[in-house]
Amino acid sequence: MQKIKLTTDQNVPIEVELATVGQRLVAVLLDMVILIAYFLIMLFVLSMTIMSSYSFFDESAYDAWTILFMLLIYLPFALYTPLLEYFFKGQTIGKMALGIRVTKVNGENAAFKNYFTRWLFRPLEMYILLVAVGGVLGFVASLFFDILMASISSRNQRIGDFMAGTIVVRKKPNRVYTINDVLSIRTHKDYQPTYTEITMYTDEDMMLVKNTIARIEKYRNKKTKEFAITLADRIATDLNLEKTPEKRLPFLKTVLNDYIVLTR
């Protein structure tokens, strides 16, 4: 997975995993299937409703058809992408299935104007209409251009993303911790640090410690345990301890808490 480092508006460094072009393409295809199914089902339901409620020669049937078609079919169909991305924080149903989402280029949640702008430069719904009216060539050309742009972009951005200032990232990437994660740990006011010399380390060092703790608690495989043991031994040596505490994981947690209390 391609990773990039970003800096938020609050100057907090984060690292994210970009969604691949393949993931984005599959998400688009899933959304197309959903939209086509919705269009056909609602068209059938609306037709049955109009036919059962109005005479074939009733002029008011045309007015009712137009109003209901706009409200129940056209508007939901046309605004599917920007509305779902807005209400579900950068995700359509296709993106949910692939575990990807749209964010601003700094990694923060996008606003409606961002979602709407990127949609304007490639409305998925227009793709479907192009195919429906026989414009398959235009659809293929547009899709090819988007794939080409995303492939050569360092951030996998298509033209709509460039214009909207957005990127598409994995929703649950392999976790890389930032200083915000370190500072989010709760501590007690009467907490007494055990290892006061821990301030010799940096925020980046403590990110490594927390990342190691998280991996131990999640995976518990041999390599992860060996790395944790090595890390604990190195810290014990730096702190001039006679020996590394037997219980390495509690030791690493204590070290992390001590650092937060002493440097906060």
Structural notes for this entry:
The chain is mainly α and 264 residues long. The chain is elongated, with a radius of gyration of 27 Å. The chain is built from 12 helices and 4 strands; from the N terminus they run ββααααβααααβαααα. The chain has 2 domains: 3-170, no CATH class; 179-263, no CATH class. The model has no long low-confidence stretch (mean pLDDT 81). The chain has helices at 21-53, 59-78, 80-87, 93-98, 112-120, 124-132, 136-152, 159-164, 179-183, 203-218, 222-238, 248-263, and strands spanning 3-7, 13-17, 100-104, 166-170. The longest helix is centred in the N-terminal third of the chain and has 33 residues, at 21-53. 22% of the residues are buried. The two termini are 34 Å apart. The strands form 2 sheets. Strands 1-2 form a two-stranded antiparallel sheet. The protein has a two-stranded antiparallel sheet with strand order 3-4. A hairpin with a 5-residue loop joins β1 and β2.
> Count of DSSP helices?
12
Q: How much helix is in the residues?
A: 55-70%
What is the number of beta strands?
4
Q: Structural class, from secondary structure content?
A: mainly alpha
What separation lies between the terminal Cα atoms? 34 Å
